[in-house]
Amino acid sequence: MLLERGTEFTAAGDALRAAAGGRASCLLLTGPVGTGRSALLRALPGPADGEGVRVLRAHAAPMEADFAFGVAHQLFDSLRSRAPREESERWQDDPRLTAIDRAGGTTSDAAEEWAVLEGLRSLLADIGAEAPLLILVDDLQWADTPSLRWLAHLVARPHGLRAAVVGTLRDGDPGGRRPAVLDLLDAGPRVLRPAALTPDATRTLVLERFGTPGDEEFTAACHDATGGNPLLLTSLLDRMAADGDEPTAAHAGRAYTLRPPLLTERLADCLRAQSRPVRHLAEALAALGGHAGPDLAAELAGLDPWEADGALADLHRLGLLTGPGEPRFVHRAVQDAVAASTTPDERREQHEVAVDLLHRHGAPAALIAERLVESATAPRPWAAAILREAAETALRAGDPETAARALRRALQDTPEPGPDRARLLADLAAAVRDTDAAACERHVTQAVSLLSDPTERALAALRIPPAFLGALPAPAIALLRRTAGELGPAALLKGTAREAALRLEARLRHAGREDPAELGASVLRLRSMGEEPALRSAGERELAAVLLYAAAVSGALTAAEAARLGHRILEHEPAAPDRTHSALPLVVLALCGADSVDAVSSWLTAGHRLRAPSPARGDGLVACAVDHAERALTLLAQGRLTQAREHAERVVVDRPGEPEGEGSAAFAVVLAAVALEVRDPAFSERVLALGGRCRAPGLVTTSMLGLLEASLEAGRGDWADALETVLSCGRQLAASGWHSSALFPWRPWAVSLHHRLGDSGAARALADEEHARAERWGAPAVLGRALRLKGRLYGGGRGEALLTEAVTVLRGSANRLELARALQELGRRLGGGPRAEAALREAGELAVACGVPRLVKRAGREELGAPGVPAAVLTPAERRVVALVGRGLTNQNIARELGVSPRAVEKHLTNSYRKLGIRGRAELAAGQCGPALGMTG
Question: What's the pTM?
Answer without folding.
Answer: 0.66
